[in-house]
Design goal:
13 strands; eight-stranded mixed β-sheet; binds ligand MTE; alpha+beta; about 325 residues
């Protein structure tokens, strides 16, 4: 696998630069960003799991592209899993945001039955040595699937705990050898109004686009996700390939990805374009910065009875120790 070289970020080229903020903000003992990046470059994430005990991704690759794949093999990664009890399959897959299928929380599960997540391909574009179109199987082939139990916090102030199956995004991105101009990564959802009835009305400017700064994309918590609860993703959850960025509001976790583009400039993202005062590019979970129309101090944990239980929202959704150092010096009220 190619060694990833972290590009230098030139402040004038981006809207918000990672500068320095003092340790102890949010009470976090943030580890040094430099050390994290060095670890990434050395492939430390991959070393967490013993290859011999892992899934057999080759089983995924030998099947015909359109056939339904055998159940995923995976291994839980406790290093990146929380100890909270996961929500049930039912709770995770019947209350969804996937506006391509409609605006109601039940629309994605009720209207996604005929969506075809296979065969699938992803275009890799932009500032990288290796670009082009890759099948889903090509993307997954060299990687072992991990199960990680993450908290998930929607900007609408509900939350849940999900056992995702996926691959650290950094391991996939490194294969395409991003160059020194790759300062951001843009992700795009399939545009297909025939399959996505919601795309026939102009709720947002389709297709759905999201983006991360390159250091966010290369953070070991960022997961390219293909399954949940030990099964492949169901259509309503973003089959066959979605992003999960657990310290950010759920809208960053884009579903059904068909394009990944390395860019020098901050990409224009769907919700930020639609309502910039309400949805920032960063969208880091932050109980101290309210949405203009509601408080973000608490969240409703789904599954805790009819209305769920109200619990305190944690800075960076509880992942401050891991990620606060990425935002050192950044005014989190301004860059929300
Ligand atoms: N991705 C696409 N393509 N379309 C969407 O409408 N909704 C986002 C995000 N990804 C969305 C999307 C929002 S607002 C949330 S909260 C999460 O998906 C919801 O993921 P879930 O339905 O699996 O919980």
């Amino acid at each position: 696998m190619a060694k990833f070289t972290y590009p230098k970020i030139v402040p004038s080229e981006i809207e918000a630069t990672p500068a320095e903020f003092g340790p102890g903000e949010f009470g976090a003992s943030a580890h040094s960003r430099r050390a994290a990046l060095a670890a990434l470059a050395a492939g430390a994430g991959a070393a967490l799991l013993a290859p011999g005990a892992l899934a057999q991704p080759s089983a995924i690759n030998t099947r015909s592209a359109a056939a339904s794949p055998p159940p995923p093999s995976f291994r839980r990664n406790p290093r990146w899993s929380v100890s909270e009890a996961p929500n049930t399959w039912e709770e995770i897959t019947t209350y969804n945001n996937f506006y391509e299928f409609g605006l109601d929380k039940a629309d994605p599960s009720e209207r996604s039955g005929s969506f075809k997540p296979r065969p699938w391909s992803v275009e890799i574009a932009g500032e990288a040595a290796k670009t082009g179109r890759y099948t889903l199987e090509d993307i997954l082939k060299p990687h072992a699937l991990e199960e990680r139990i993450y908290r998930f916090r929607c900007v609408e102030a509900w939350s849940r705990v999900v056992p995702w199956l996926g691959i650290p995004l950094k391991d996939v991105l490194a294969r395409f050898e991003p160059n020194s101009r790759a300062k951001f990564v843009e992700f795009t959802t399939l545009l297909d109004p025939k399959q996505f009835p919601g795309q026939r009305s102009r709720v947002i400017d389709w297709p759905y686009v999201e983006g991360l700064r390159i250091d966010e994309a290369m953070h070991p918590l960022t997961l390219l996700t293909v399954g949940l609860h030990g099964r492949w993703l169901p259509n309503q959850s973003g089959a066959p390939l979605r992003l999960i960025v657990p310290w950010k509001y759920g809208f960053k976790s884009i579903k059904s990805i068909v394009r990944i583009r390395f860019t020098e400039r901050q990409p224009a993202t769907s919700w930020n374009k639609a309502a910039p005062d309400e949805y920032g590019f960063f969208a880091n979970v932050n109980p101290a910065v309210d949405h203009p129309r509601w408080s973000q101090a608490k969240e409703r944990r789904l599954g805790g009875g009819l209305f769920g239980s109200r619990i305190d929202t944690l800075p960076f959704n509880g992942y401050a120790n891991e990620v606060a150092s990425l935002y050192r010096g950044l005014d989190l009220r301004r860059f929300y």
